[in-house]
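In this section we walk through a basic example: taking a raw amino acid sequence and producing a predicted 3D structure, encoded as C-alpha cells. The instruction is simple. Fold the sequence below.
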Amino acid sequence: MSTSTTPAPPPGTQHPPPARRAPGPARPTARRGWRRALRRDWQLYSLAVLPLLFFLVFRYLPMIGNVIAFRRFEPGGSIFGEQWVGLRYVEMFLSDPTFWQVFRNTLWIGALTLVFCFPVPLVLALLLNEVRRTALKRFVQSVSYLPHFLSIVIVAGITMQMLATDGPVNHVLGWFGHDPIRFIQEPEWFRTVYVGSEIWQTAGWGTILYLAALTTIDEDLYEAARIDGANRWKQIWHVTLPGIRPTMITLLILNIGTFLAVGFEKILLLYNPLTYPTADVVSTYLYRTGVESNSFSYAAAIGLFEAVIGLVLITSANLLSRRTVGTSLW
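The resulting C-alpha cell sequence is shown next.
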C-alpha cells in the first residue's frame, strides 16, 4: 500500500499565514465570571452592604456640603448657600494669624504623636513575642490594651485627676522636694500630657496587629538564622522586622494620612483658654469657629484645606513607600 506525500515547498517560500478570524464583539467573560461569583457567594457579598451604605451616607454624601466653602451660608437658608463668593473664605483664613498658629500647633502635636505613638506598639509587640510564659504574656496584653476600651471622657478625666495640683503625680514630686506643677494649666506641658495619654490609651491595642503579623513568619527562618549563628537581636533585625514590614508600612501610611486629624475629642476635653497657645489645633478651631460662632462657610473652607493636605500626605507617603521599599496601600 502506498501513501501519498505532499511535496515540500521550494526554497525561499513560506507557508501562508493562517487566515484571521473576522473581528466580532468581545465575549463578556469577565462579566459572566463576576455574575457567577455573585450568585455563588452572595451571602459573603451581602456582608459588605452595610459598610458601603455607612460610607456612602456618612462619608461621601456629606462631601457635597463642601460647596459652602465657596458660597455664603446662613442658618435657616439653602443648604448649598445663598450667594457665590468664590475664594473669599480661603483668602480669609490664609491671611488670619490665628489660623496659622493653630496650624503650627496641629503640625507639632501630629508630629509628636507620630514619632512617639507609632513605634511604641511595635516595640511592645516585639517584647511580648520574646516572652515564653503564656500566662504572663496574656496578662501584659490584657493590661496594656484595656485603656483602649475606655471612653475618651474617662481617659481625659483620669489624666486630669492624675496631673492635678493635688494629684498623685504632684504628691510624688513633693516627696522629692519639688514644688507642685500645674500640668493642665501650663501651655508648655500640654503637648507632653496629650502625647503621654495617647501612648497609654493606644499602645496596647496597636500591638494586636503586629502580634498577628508575627504569627505569619515561618519558624524555619529563625532556625536557619540560629544555625548561621545569629543572636536574638540579629534575628529580630534580619527576620522579624522584614517579616512584618508590610504591616508597618501600611500603618505608617494610614497614620500619615491622619496627620492633621489629631484627637479632637481628647484635646477638647483637656485644653482650656490658658493652654490655647500650644493646645488649640485645626479641629478645635473649626469647632469654635463653625459651631460656636456660626461661621459655617469659613469653617468649611478650613476643613476643605485640611482634607486636601491630608490627601496629599497619604498619596505622597504611598508613592514614596512603593518606590523605596516596594510596599504600598495601592
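Looking at the output, two observations stand out. The CA atoms of residues 121 and 203 lie 5 Å apart. The two ends are 69 Å apart (CA to CA). In the next section we compare this with other chains.
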